[in-house]
Design a protein that fits this description.
Elements: H1 4-14, E1 33-38, E2 41-46, H2 51-57, E3 64-65, E4 72-73, E5 86-89, E6 92-95, E7 105-108, E8 110-111, E9 125-137, H3 141-152, E10 157-160, H4 181-184, H5 190-202, E11 207-210, E12 214-218, E13 224-228, E14 231-242, E15 246-248, E16 261-263, H6 264-273, E17 281-285, H7 289-300, E18 304-310, H8 319-327, E19 332-334, E20 336-342, E21 349-354, E22 367-370, E23 373-376, E24 380-382, H9 385-392, E25 397-399, H10 409-427, H11 436-445, E26 464-468, H12 478-482, E27 488-489, E28 500-501, H13 510-514, E29 520-524, E30 533-538, E31 550-554, E32 560-571, E33 579-584, E34 595-596, E35 620-622, E36 627-628, H14 629-638, H15 643-650, H16 666-672
Parallel strand pairs: 1-7, 3-8, 9-10, 9-14, 10-11, 14-25, 16-23, 17-18, 17-23, 18-19
Antiparallel strand pairs: 1-2, 3-4, 5-6, 5-7, 12-13, 13-14, 15-24, 20-21, 21-22, 26-29, 27-28, 29-30, 30-33, 31-32, 31-34, 32-33, 35-36
Amino acid sequence: MPENGTNVKRRAELDIEARIRRHPVLPPLPDSWVKFTFNGRDMVGRTGEMVSSAVFANGEHIFGHHSKDDGAQGIYCANGQCSQCTLLINGVPLKSCIVPLEEGMVVRSVEGLPDLENTEPPSVSPPENISTDVLIIGAGPSGMAAAKELGTHGFDVILVDDKDRLGGKLVLQTHKFFGSEEDCRAGIRGTRIAEILAGEIQNSKGIDVWLESVALAVFSDGTVGIRKTDGYKIVKPKYLLVAAGAREKSLPFPGCTIPGVYGAGAFQTLVNRDQIRCSERIFILGGGNVGLIGAYHALQAGMTVVGLAEGMASCGGYKVHADKIVRMGVPVYTRHTVLAAHGEENLESVTISEIDENFTPIPGTEKNFKVDTLLVAVGLSSVNEFHAKAVEYGIPSMLTGDSEEIAEASAAMFSGRICGRKIADTLNGESENTPPEWLEKADILKSPGGAVEEYVVSDIKTGVFPVIHCYQEIPCNPCMTVCPKGLITTAGHPIMGLPKYHDGCIGCKKCVAICPGLAVSLVDYRKNSEFPTVTIPWELGDWTLEEGQTVVLTEWQGSPLGEGTVLGLKNAPGYPSTMLLDIQVPENIANRVAGVRVQEPKVTITEETIPEIPIPDDAIVCRCERVTAGEIRELLREGVRDMNELKARTRAGFGACGGKTCKTLIPRVIRSEGINPDEVTEFTERPLFAETRLGIFCGKEEE
């Protein structure tokens, strides 16, 4: 490979404008580049990045067209779960989101049913049988925490993950974490937590890490098949721990498969892992923490968030997450849903509508937005298939993290630690000896958030003091633990209780810098009582504001308060990538200032024309085989009540993803027909979790 200087020139010559040039939190990725071709066009990408990301960064968002209806296909999950990003890579059809880019790769789109090339068989070793004390599937926060706990008890552990690095979804989380500072590193960014945990794993004895390795199946003889880069391994553990996380749920609506409609996790992968500017104008469906955080990550990357729709009367995520994006100028439409996405080859607009208490769209309330991206963040489904098979075959097995219960990563870390202790006790032949306080903390960290207290404006007009704009009980205590004088406490639970300030502030601003919800400001009347200084946290980069600039100030829930003048931006000592923004504000609003509006209202206005909405039967339920809701309904009305018969007659579930996306959508169609779910026979699960070339099972391929 040429040296970096030549690589930079090569990149400049091919003009990759989709790369994020600077990010307020993430350091620049290495300038190491390789050449490849896509449909005969010369391209460059970063060494080792996923092929899908490299193609996307070069402006190609359509990865092919489906053989059934010629519908355009592109990235959807970016996590190896669906098959929308399948490309012909050196002649082999592969999910491009999990294939690292190499020099000279020849990549082609999949158009219809392509003629496959004769390719060399994989150079792999014959299958190998391996025994271990514990096999952990998934190296995210819960899997790593469990491995570390088991390692401390002297057990041999194989930790398997299909990604190229440890951390799971932590590597995508640029925001600071909630929870307990002592127990789950609250106040530290997810990306940094991933680095810390990975370092602990690498320094632990007895833990064998297998990256870029896919768990394929759990077999009745107590073994688990693992596909590694060097061949097929058959692992026989004494105990199986499934920490495979979750996959995003999808939602069937007209246009749901248009390139540009994808999961919030895929968006975070492109933006925060691969630093690709994948969008200009974004709409988000779903007001849970995933959707709210996705909106904030988009703002950090300099993109416009046109709006967010949530079906319930209020967002299901933490209120501080919702408040901070509203303060920045993102409209949140509660009691709304998406009716349709519009566009031919790429997403062009999205139509939303109000819904009633039965979640039925209300005619006449439609709104249309011009966007190029729709993020679907409507919940997660646990990846628990391996555990279910283990239970069926009588293999000792346990679930942890999101594979057990969908919760925050802070809870997943604690869940993994508890499972590691339980397995250690079992293997030692001892009764369970998990400390009761661990179980109590685990339950607290899973809390979705409590009631919202009434907002009270501070009447203090002298000195310096923090204003805490956090009025919902959530598991979080960094502001209480960081104060050097112990002035922020709670009358309730030490983690769940609402923080309260007591007199005596010295103006150190640590509480402002550490708050994961950006919900603390500092008001200083000491120099100018008529125009005090308000300090708020700023995570959008020092290039976004300048001294002397006039900004629109917002209160805790986003309403404009008036204007202020930027006095300066400074790095918060000890808190990487967090800046402190000092603003001079009028005295009459100082105690209410919680944020600065980032987006002007004009960028989020609706389109005047509402496109015609196709009938719901056209909505595609099975993305792989392009099976619509109407096709499913037709067979249901004929009396079909067996998912396997639906699969045989429509091919829904036959696709390359193995039915992972449609198996949660078909039951929704069934329920919409008024059919009792108890009447329906479920899918028979496939024996292999991921598509695999047959030669890998024996170490060679023959005609």
